[in-house]
TrEMBL record:
Species whose genome carries this gene: Chaetorhynchus papuensis
PANTHER family reported in the protein's UniProt record: DALR ANTICODON-BINDING DOMAIN-CONTAINING PROTEIN 3, DALRD3 PROTEIN
GO MF annotations in UniProt: arginine-tRNA ligase activity; ATP binding; tRNA binding
A Gene Ontology BP annotation from the UniProt entry: tRNA C3-cytosine methylation
Protein name: DALD3 protein
All copies of domain DALR anticodon binding, residue ranges: 405-545
């Protein structure tokens, strides 16, 4: 069997299979201290539960180092230790397989996904100024869209931005959101929804008389429908919804997005009042303060169009965004400008007059975007975020900030730029083909840490970040939208520690070139991981800081 790129999941499956037990017994180590002695561990407690007396048959233990597979790491030794069964990887071969050329075309990803997801962000519907709480849900939807697309999923973003809703702050934060004017197709859809409401037993037309809001055209009894259908997870206070033209326009936009989604199996779709619609997942990304209103819209859509797609509606709810001691409500644009000013001041403190040069304008803008995106996205979406706007909480030094991540990405760019200029001067020979590199030179603890904790699991990290839970009866879902930010922060910390300790570009002596070239190949792969992960956040890599 050919050997391809190793993966964590495939290696764990092979290890579990070697012991002949269905339970997941093995774990991957990640801490520097444990990685000095082992790479995978089957803990003593897990072995005691799976085998009589915790004793694994000797033939199973001896078979572990001979495990092979296209995505299985090369294993060196398996031995009993006080902590349990410990396995070490053949590290030079692992470096070669992860950093070297793959033999032939890569196999198709086992977890490749297709389909369509509509991400609906109600925060963009209002014409009023955006607040930080709205910005959180928009940034989350934007990031989730990028993650899903990277996994082969088609994504539609709703609502389209109109002239009245094209906030500058979205452009400044590099949020890629579609724009459009609606048009006759939406007008036709609104008319169809009105006709459906007129035939709906749950709805009653409103006469435009004294005491009636002028724009209300129907009253719809949501509670009775929820009870009749046995819907789970909705607010018990859902009762009567006053339907306006704006309400129907919102549904029409959603309906149009669904109709644009590709249909994988049209024959499997239940009947719908809108025959051109397709089956796709609909996720309402909403802040907790607007969750009730979105549930109302959800139920209304189910009433008007009992198709497969409306039954697949889910709500991804963002926790509150608390602003410490604001003198007055702060808008998203004010929040951006404040963070930009703080980032400029922090850069001047660190870099002096250099940061005041015009060439740094784009650098400051990118650092500001990174700071805000990490501030909003590195916390689990259901948890509260606290924004401290009084004190300068933005720093170029903090290890958990977006600026720190961008700084380390720029350090890598500087490293390779310095190497290239040295090659042009004749100080070093060019980097040889990867097949000629000697990866047995990579013996420093931090080098294995970078490969084993970041390069190896990175594809699976992106898959997990884009993972949406399977269909369930409830309407709330959770997503791992903080995964990429946390991964980048931890990668930056471990890379920074390694880079501060190891002099990569050493003296130009031929006997040192093998190690230098192997390290450059490793750090080139680290740079690629930085770039790919930052792309899911719409952050361009910086070439200087």
């Amino acid at each position: 069997m050919g050997e391809g790129r190793p993966g964590v999941a495939a290696t764990l499956r092979a290890l579990n299979g070697a012991l002949g037990r269905p339970a997941a017994l093995w774990v991957k180590e990640s801490g520097a201290r444990n990685l000095r002695h082992r790479d995978f561990l089957a803990p003593r407690a897990a072995l005691s539960a799976a085998f009589p007396g915790g004793q694994v048959p000797p033939e199973a233990v001896s078979a572990v180092p001979s495990l092979r597979g296209p995505a299985v790491l090369p294993l060196r030794v398996c031995r009993q230790t006080p902590a349990g069964l410990a396995v070490q990887v053949r590290r030079p071969e692992a470096f070669q397989r992860l950093l070297g050329p793959l033999p032939g075309p890569p196999p198709p990803a086992a977890e490749a996904r297709t389909g369509c997801v509509v991400l609906h962000c109600p925060a963009l519907r209002g014409a009023a100024a955006l607040r930080p709480r709205h910005l959180r849900s928009v940034l989350l939807a934007d990031h989730l869209a990028q993650l899903l697309r990277a996994q082969g999923v088609s994504v539609r973003l709703v609502p389209a931005l109109t002239e009245e809703r094209r906030w500058d702050v979205l452009r400044q934060l590099r949020i890629c959101w579609p724009s459009g004017s609606g048009g006759s197709s939406l007008s036709d859809a609104v008319s169809a929804l009105k006709a459906a409401l007129g035939q709906c037993p749950c709805a009653a037309a409103c006469e435009q008389g004294p005491g009636t809001a002028e724009s209300v055209i129907f009253k719809v009894h949501l509670k009775s429908f929820v009870e009749q259908q046995g819907l789970v997870g909705y607010d018990p206070n859902l009762d009567v919804l006053l339907v306006t033209e704006r309400t129907l326009w919102s549904l029409a936009e959603l309906q149009e997005a669904v109709m644009d989604c590709p249909v994988s199996d049209p024959q499997a779709l239940p009947a719908s009042r809108f025959p051109n619609s397709s089956c796709c997942s609909i996720i309402h990304v909403v802040n907790c303060e607007e969750e009730f209103q979105q549930q109302q819209l959800d139920v209304l859509w189910r009433i008007l169009d009992p198709g497969a797609h409306t039954a697949l509606q889910k709500h991804l709810v963002c926790g509150p965004v608390k602003v410490t001691k604001p003198s007055s409500p702060i808008g998203a644009d004010q929040y951006f400008q404040l963070r930009k000013r703080q980032m400029y001041e922090a850069s001047v403190i660190k870099y002096g007059e250099l940061a005041q040069d015009e060439a740094w304008t784009e650098v400051i803008d990118t650092l500001t975007v990174a700071a805000i995106r990490f501030e909003m996205l590195s916390t689990a979406h259901r948890s509260q975020i606290t924004l401290d706007l009084e004190n300068n909480s933005i720093s170029t030094k903090g290890t958990k900030s977006g600026a720190f991540v961008m700084y380390n990405c720029a350090r890598l760019a500087t490293l390779f730029d310095t190497f290239q200029r040295a090659v042009e001067r004749g100080t070093y020979p060019p980097l040889p083909p990867v097949s000629e590199l000697n990866f047995s030179c990579l013996r420093e603890e931090g080098e294995w840490l970078l490969l084993f904790n970041y390069l190896l699991p990175f594809p699976e990290v992106l898959q997990q970040a884009a993972q949406l839970p399977p269909p369930s009866k409830g309407i709330r879902i959770t997503a791992n939208t903080e995964t990429v930010c946390k991964f980048l922060i931890q990668l930056s910390m471990d890379f920074s520690s390694y880079y501060n300790r190891v002099h990569v570009l050493g003296e130009p002596f031929p006997h040192l070139f093998d190690q230098m070239f192997a390290r450059l190949q490793l750090l080139g792969a680290v740079r690629d991981v930085f770039h790919s992960a930052l792309a899911t956040l719409h952050l361009p890599p910086l070439s200087q800081i």
